[in-house]
Amino acid sequence: MRESTESSYQERILKVLRHIQDNLDREINVEELARLACFSSAHFHRFFKGMLGESLGEHVRRLRLERSALMLLVSEQSVTRIALDAGYETPEAYSRSFRRMFGAPPSEYRRDSRKRLYPESPSGVHYLPDGDRPGLNIRTRSLPMNVEIVTMPPRRVAYMRRVGPYFGVEKVWEALCGWAGAKGLFGPDTLFLGVCHDDPQITAPEKIRYDACLTVPDHVEAEGPVGIQEVFGGDWAVSRLVGPYEGLQDLYNRFVGGWLPQSGRELRESASIEVYRNTPGDTPPEELITDVFIALK
What we know:
Layout: H1 2-22, H2 30-37, H3 41-52, H4 56-74, H5 79-85, H6 91-102, H7 106-117, E1 126-127, E2 148-152, E3 155-163, H8 170-182, E4 192-196, E5 209-215, E6 227-231, E7 234-242, H9 248-263, E8 272-276, E9 289-296
Parallel strand pairs: 1-2
Antiparallel strand pairs: 2-7, 3-5, 3-6, 4-5, 4-8, 7-9, 8-9
Helix pairs in contact: 1-2, 2-3, 4-5, 5-6
């Protein structure tokens, strides 16, 4: 009974968190969240803080501020525009909140972070013609930054969420694969994906959200800590890392800081996705293959 109840709470909080991250651009309706969690509005706040360790208001403000920090890095939007998009009525109010969280006002943060993170070497981009979009099949090129732009169909995935540093996700993968294996869900076309919601250079390690995912057919339903969501859809830029996962942060920096500003494209507000072509269990670190996708408008 205890395990069943805990599983139910995990399933309900996943629905709530998914709804929040999909609706950051509009007012968050507490009554709607409470209905998703099957709680009264009065008890919902206690439930949320007990499960997440922060209040609903703190959680929403943090996500919006962290998203705004990313926009300062990768876009040319004015601070005023970014402040309004983050839900602040004035740039001054936004600047105060931003400084409290990141230790510097937005303009200074943008300048200093770009100097620190963005490489100066040029990167190459290869656009696939419309008739040659092989889904997840990547052609490599001998350039400093190999990037292709592909149009991805939506994929239905089962996922388990981990909150904490990106390094250390093995247990959530073990749990997800154990659940899927018991249901006979593995097949030759199963894809293993990591949905990376947060930038570790912006979000505190203990707050980082990571979804371990695998593709599943339509009949599979959410169950306890395992949720169902749709990923991909639309245009994505993809670059391949061959080697240990420790190289991912450098790839992201070169991808978003070096390639993106020269690409003529802009980011779409969506989590980045990592597709794991092999696993550490049967592959030497230097032969690991990870395809990193970022969403484009």
